[in-house]
Write a structure and sequence with these properties.
Layout (H helix, E strand, L loop, with lengths): L1 H21 E4 L3 E7 L2 E6 L2 E4 L5 E8 L3 E11 L5 E12 L2 H6 L4 H18 L3 H6 L1 H16 L4 E12 L2 H74 L3 H15 L14 H23 L15 E3 L2 E3 L7
Antiparallel strand pairs: 1-4, 2-3, 2-5, 6-7, 7-8, 9-10
Amino acid sequence: MPSIIIVLVILVVLVFIALIKTIQVIPQASAAIVERFGRYTRTLNAGLNIVVPFIDSIRNRIDLREQVVPFPPQPVITQDNLVVNIDTVIYYQVTDARAATYEVASYIQAIEQLTVTTLRNIIGGMDLERTLTSREEINAALRGVLDEATGKWGIRVNRVELKAIEPPTSIQDSMEKQMRADRDKRAAILTAEGIRQSQILTAEGEKQSAILRAEGEAKAAALRAEGEAQAIRTVFESIHAGDPDQKLLSYQYLQMLPKIAEGDANKLWIVPSEIGDALKGLSGAIGSFGGPLSGNGGNGGSGNSGGNSGIPRQSGGTERREQPPID
């Protein structure tokens, strides 16, 4: 009886193990390689799968998601014989689980070595300056070579990125000095250009200001001349309309004589020759006013008892003036 129980227990254990071996659950975005007696049979996809226990075995489980693998810095020699350290990052994805299992022993190591050799070939044809400024070109060339080489392994290289390109310390110092000198040069050029542009603009402004000032002065002079002409025309028209006689003009002429002598510095002034005509006209005006006044005073037509008033007398319709003695 105890032996029968032992046998039953062994059978239950074997059935349980067989069930475990028979039912295989594969996660999403994963695949499993099934071998029967060491030979590839099929690939198990995501989900519940049934295999023959103790005959079929799971060789490898592969993650089908995109993988990111950073590689350590690799020393690379440029065309101008400078050693630079380059860090790379590979983005790849397994597209064929069978090829990735049987076509290459370790596709990670294979991709790393292929990346190093390809990178050395590409950088070897470039100088340092081009290497530092041509990352996109290097990435594209590296990705093309890797994608072509890893296609038969069931690997697809999606992207290749250069994390860092580190030249030697001495080269970095030289580059910093060169960049600093270039910045100083550009700053000096920009400053000179600014000063030049400022001077040009200032000169243009002064030129425009002078032109506008001259035009303003010309217009102002024209307006002043036009105003003076209009004033003279108005005065002339007013005088012409009033029809003044010689007596009024003589009186106005005598009123202007004190203005000629105005000023503290005027120690000598010249009397115009026309003053005789003005005095003659003014004397005539005074005589015309004084005649009736004398007649009313009972002097019998005599303008002055002394006879030295200097007012000319009229006799028989003609004017007589005393001539001063000629020296």
